[in-house]
């Protein structure tokens, strides 16, 4: 799989560290904390995830890809969009 | 007969520049009198100073001929704008030139070195043999052959050199 880093361009996925679902928001209180930490949707289709370009520009990016085909649908700097 | 010249460089200065929050590359370029590229690129300015884009808001500053005050002068000019860290001893630099230099790089890094993509002035931060590298391409030499420079961490240099020697031997 190759990821289109908004700074570096297209790179092999091995250069990146995977974090996971970029849509999760940390809850204000303890309510919902367990779900925030542990509960994950197992999406089949387009999903936005955080990846860290550790072997490149050393920046967090938010990558949208189709989890069933690995088709890349776009990537932005994490700080410009989803957290 | 392979056309490859490998030179281990010395006497250079290298420093990382990281922009403070909200400071643009434009402001950093103005303070240093050389363009601070917004993309991975090698930009050479006056007074033997070059900036190499290594990430959003971060650059390598490079000079071919370092002086004892080089890094502190850089820091002074970027006061309030960026953090400067001298890496002149932290990295080793190798220059690859000649017709076969591109082939050698292409056997190590999973990025495209075709001249239409990686022309003089291009730069990239990536890995070769699992070792982090920053690569930039200088102007071609007098005979029109490409010239690349590669920065690796000093502690990985022997391993990198082993990869390079084995790859060059197979040309
Ligand atoms: Zn990147």
| Number of strand segments of chain A | 6
Assign an overall shape of chain A: globular
* Most residues in contact: chain pair: A-B, 13 and 13 residues
Could you give the order of strands across the largest sheet of chain B?
1-7-10-9-8
Return the CATH class of the largest domain in chain B: Alpha Beta
Q: What kind of assembly state do the chains in view correspond to? A: heterodimer
State the helicity of chain A in percent bands. under 10%
User: Mind describing the biggest β-sheet of chain A?
Assistant: 4 strands, antiparallel
In CATH, the topology of chain A is named Folate-binding fold
Mean pLDDT of chain B, as a whole number?
96
**What is the first-to-last residue Cα distance of chain A?**
24 Å
Look at the helices and sheets of chain A and give the structural class: mainly beta
- What is the total number of structural domains of chain B? 2
Percent strand of chain A equals: 35-45%
CATH architecture of the largest domain in chain B: 2-Layer Sandwich
